[in-house]
Amino acid sequence: MEVEFTVLSDRREGLLRELGNLIIHSGFSLVRQRMSTIESGVQLWLRVSGREDRLLELEERLGSHPLVLSFESEHQVTDGPAAPVAPAAKPVMPKRPPQGVGRSLQGGRGAGPAVGQIEAELPGLAQDYPRIFPRLLSMQGKLPEGQKSPSMEFAGRRVGAWVYKRDYALGGKLDLSGALKHIALPAMRNLLSTDLKENSLRVKNNPLCMPGSHCRNGEFFCGFLRGLLDESGVGGQVTVREIYCRSDGAEDCVFEIVN
């Protein structure tokens, strides 16, 4: 598939190089580009080609890149004539004011995350961080049935990537064990009481998984840890799963991380 992105940035120098490398590392190729200076900064138009199943990953990386203030995307671009598609404005979780609110990119498919709903909540999550659980619980209650799990995981990944860039990006590259000790553990402790044992994080009093509810709502933390660790550059793709949950009667929620 081919996709067009319109990116807004406040810096011209190195922008195309940085985003070109990001596009390639996300499994896409750059077809053509155009850059122009506008009143609010620099606008970069990109047309890229790649696999549809890697598109969400590319959009997440664009959304959390420090040079990107906001971007719009137009999906399913073809070489033949087609009806125009309204672009979806995508905010970031920056230290600067958010630039817009996106809408769902899944076209109503129940299996995917409600991207637009989550994107609309990201500026508020950034403002409230680390006291984000009231907003998370409210957001979770508004999500469509069938999209709660992927949406919470998507939200976690966006927040985790943002936290890494805000708090840990200036550190040296670590292996998984070091990243768990020096990045994942302190980041989780900003949210809840957490202990680390080997490659597992034990989270106490998780308000997303209430005792007896049998809900297993660990997706946010699975995404949060993936966002943190993927951004840290640990070797290989990180997998996070909840192996014990207090909603099922366990004392604490336990998340196992492997790569």
Task: Tell me what the structure shows.
Residues 78-113 are annotated as: Disordered. Residues 81-92 have a biased composition (Low complexity). It comes from Microbulbifer taiwanensis. The protein has 259 residues and is α+β, with helices and mostly antiparallel strands. It has a domain at 1-102: Alpha-Beta Plaits. The chain has 7 helices and 9 strands, in the order E-H-E-E-H-E-E-H-H-H-H-E-E-H-E-E. The longest helix has 20 residues, at 148-167. The protein is globular. The relative contact order is 0.10.
How many β strands by DSSP? 9
Strand order of the largest sheet: 2-3-1-4-5
Outline type: globular
Low-confidence stretches: 78-92, 94-111
CATH class of the domain at 1-102: Alpha Beta
Summarize the structure in short.
This protein has 259 residues and is an alpha+beta fold. It contains seven helices and nine strands; from the N terminus they run E-H-E-E-H-E-E-H-H-H-H-E-E-H-E-E.
Q: Can you lay out the helices and strands and say which pair or pack?
A:
Elements: E1 2-9, H1 15-25, E2 29-38, E3 41-49, H2 55-64, E4 70-77, E5 88-91, H3 115-128, H4 133-142, H5 148-167, H6 176-189, E6 194-197, E7 200-203, H7 219-232, E8 239-244, E9 253-258
Antiparallel strand pairs: 1-3, 1-4, 2-3, 4-5, 6-7, 7-9, 8-9
Helix pairs in contact: 3-5, 5-7, 6-7
